[in-house]
Amino acid sequence: GQERGLRPGTQDVAGAAATAAALREALAECEAEERRQSLLRDRLLREVLATVEDVRVNTVRPALPGHLSLSFPGAEGDSLIMLLDSLGIEAATGSACHSGVNRASEVLLAMGVPEREARGTVRFTLGPETSEKDVEYLAARLPGVVRRARAAGMA
Q1: Among candidates 149, 125, 151, which has minimal Cα distance to 138?
Q2: Superkingdom of this entry's organism (predicted)?
Q3: What residues are labeled active site?
């Protein structure tokens, strides 16, 4: 009941200072991690554009550091992610909130992406555990995956 019941008890000044210090450190780490993921994303994009024909980049700047959305016209998104999955590469055809839904992304359609291209879209998400070797592995295998998915055609 101290201070007329408004703030009972003694304030934890040491706890507040420790929390502030932890938040400063976490923010500094977060900024460095965003830079690292952005560099990996940009490297992946450069490699894909250099090795795969007819790619539409849907990721618009400014973008989340670890996200890259690409459309591969003539390939079905489900074929792409199944082929990628067989190589141990995790990807998605749309947003996480629409996983398991087999149709073109409403967001891409609203951005003006034609439906046939939107159906051939894959979203790659990089995270804290993603390494340069992971990006190299994906970049080396993606041209073959796209070739095979395009050969299978659209549903």
Answers
A1: 125
A2: Bacteria
A3: 97
| pTM of the model as a whole | 0.78
- pLDDT tens-digit map of 27-69: 888 989 999 999 999 999 999 999 999 999 988 888 899 999 9
Q: Which domains does the chain have, with CATH numbers?
A: 33-152 (3.90.1150.10)
Residue partners of 130: CB distance under 8 A and separation at least 6: 37, 40, 66
Q: What are the pLDDT digits (tens) for 92-102?
A: 986 555 555 56
- Considering only CA atoms, give the Rg of the chain: 22
Q: What is the side-by-side order of every strand in the sheet holding 56-57?
A: 56-57, 67-71, 121-125
Backbone angles phi, psi at 108, to 5 degrees: -65, -40
Alpha-carbon 67 to chain mean position: 3
Q: Report how far residue 102's alpha carbon sits from residue 92's, in angstroms, rounded to the nearest whole number.
A: 11
